[in-house]
Write a structure and sequence with these properties.
This is Light-independent protochlorophyllide reductase subunit N. Keywords: 4Fe-4S, ATP-binding, Bacteriochlorophyll biosynthesis, Chlorophyll biosynthesis, Iron, Iron-sulfur, Metal-binding, Nucleotide-binding, Oxidoreductase, Photosynthesis. By secondary structure, this protein is of the alpha/beta class. The chain folds into 3 domains: 155 residues, Rossmann fold; 122 residues, Rossmann fold; 91 residues, Rossmann fold (3-Layer(aba) Sandwich), CATH 3.40.50.1980. The chain is 45% helix and 16% strand. The strands form 3 sheets. The protein has a 6-stranded parallel beta sheet with strand order 1-12-11-10-13-14, sandwiched between helices. A 4-stranded parallel beta sheet has the order 3-2-4-5, with helices on both faces. The protein has a 4-stranded parallel beta sheet with strand order 7-6-8-9, sandwiched between helices. The longest helix has 26 residues. The radius of gyration is 22 Å and the shape is globular. The chain starts with 16 loop residues before the first strand and ends with a helix.
């Protein structure tokens, strides 16, 4: 069973971490609804917030006026914010109207926002009350998507963590794969696991509430996304056991992720090689095409998506890039340690953000490519730095073998664009 070799100089797991606790530039955690509502086909996400929250979701999702999406906003008006109306009563009425109009809803998430948290609206109490009223037809849960204290991928983490306590108990020996993936990517993953003879495989989130997703002391779980720290802890509290592994980005990361699961379930090295040999070769070939552009180029990560460490590992080891700084909102050894083991020594490792100080370091480093949030990209481009939007890496299929070339191409594209503009200016 093939496992990636550690870098000759050792990895970054024990490297000093620059802890930054200043001003942050992050996207709102409500954004996670945009991919979660597509994944959970019988769920509805009701944001309890302001008109600004509604506009954000409409813009981020690109919802057309005639569409009927599986999310919406219960608008907090001035009277609610001023304490002149009973927001709980109004919320009950909104939920009643919603459920009477949409009988297809089986799971309802009450999603907290900055306005609802500022006025201390107790959505957990509301979820308990409404769940009791509408059970068993509808399960009502709540979580916070507020941008006050969260990065945008933490919306998914909070949502999945809220689901864990209500999952049924099981004593069966099962694999649970955790993290929302596009359906086509999920199907590819399930095909690989099936080929290895691993099953039954359960999913969190599942596509609907009736899926047989349960958890118990014989559950082993693998995280497909690197931003699920709260969900990881919630599963551990239910007695499930984590399978630590690098995240499945690129050929190497996918192979290491699958190998860790295969070891847990006793798959032979011969069968592992038989199942993975062909897709590994395709992934290496696809990555090599983009690596021609990326090799030798320097790279700087602002903390944004919580995907930064595994992406830096992929880009340095498979694409030949040189990370100068790898910053991530949070670093959890249980989740990110395996990728840090494989990340070659050299880059600054930072946790958290002080945006002004980090901007100073980026300007001093002058990297060939800077990965950052939307709010920083245009100003840095104006200063002559090529940038890649971090949010695009969440909305684009990037996991496992068949997407490895597409992942590398996402980073090659802005460098090629900058090179083309330079040639055009020189003519």
């Amino acid at each position: 069973m093939s496992r990636p070799e550690l870098p000759a100089a050792g990895g970054c797991r024990s490297a000093p971490v620059l802890k930054e606790r200043g001003q942050r530039e992050v996207f709102c955690g409500l954004t996670g609804i945009v991919w979660l509502h597509r994944k959970m086909q019988d769920a509805f996400f009701l944001v309890v917030g302001s008109r600004t929250c509604a506009h954000l979701l409409q813009s981020a999702a690109g919802v057309m006026i005639f569409a009927e999406p599986r999310f919406g906003t219960a608008i907090l008006e001035e009277a609610d914010l001023a304490g002149m109306a009973d927001a709980q009563d109004e919320l009950d009425r909104e939920v009643e109207r919603l459920l009477s109009r949409r009988p297809d809803i089986r799971q309802l998430f009450l999603v907290g926002s900055c306005p609802s948290e500022v006025i201390k609206l107790d959505l957990s109490k509301a979820a308990e009350r409404l769940s009791a009223r509408h059970a068993p037809r509808v399960r009502v849960l709540n979580y916070s998507g507020s941008g006050i204290e969260t990065t945008f991928t933490e919306g998914e983490d909070a949502c999945l963590a809220a689901m864990v306590p209500v999952l049924p108990e099981t004593q069966e020996r099962e694999l649970l794969v955790v993290g929302a993936l596009p359906d086509v990517v999920e199907d590819q993953m399930l095909s690989l696991l099936s080929g290895l003879g691993i099953g039954p495989v359960r999913l969190l989130p599942a596509r609907n509430i009736d899926a047989e997703t349960a958890v118990g002391p014989n559950t082993a779980y693998a995280l497909a996304q690197p931003f699920l720290g709260e969900t990881h802890e919630a599963l551990a509290r239910r007695g499930a056991r984590h399978i630590p592994a690098p995240f499945p980005y690129g050929e190497e990361g996918t192979t290491a992720w699958l190998a860790a699961i295969a070891t847990e379930f006793g798959v032979s090295p011969e069968r592992f090689a038989e199942v993975t040999e062909a897709p590994r070769a395709r992934a290496r070939k696809a990555v090599a095409a983009a690596a021609e552009t990326l090799a030798g180029k320097s790279l700087f990560f602002f903390p944004d998506s919580q995907m930064e460490i595994p992406l830096a590992r992929f880009l340095s080891r498979e694409c030949g890039m040189e990370p100068l700084e790898v910053a991530q909102p949070y670093i959890r050894d249980a989740l990110h340690g395996p990728d840090l083991d494989l990340l070659p020594q050299g880059p600054r490792i930072a946790e958290g953000q002080d945006v002004d100080r980090q901007l100073d370091r980026a300007r001093a480093d002058r990297p060939d490519l800077t990965v950052c949030g939307l709010g920083l990209a245009n100003p840095l481009e104006a200063e002559g730095l090529a940038t890649k939007w971090a949010i695009e890496l969440v909305f684009t299929p990037v996991h496992f073998y068949e997407q490895a070339g597409d992942l590398a191409a996402l980073f090659a594209r802005p460098i090629r664009r900058k090179q083309a503009l330079r040639l055009e200016a020189a003519e």
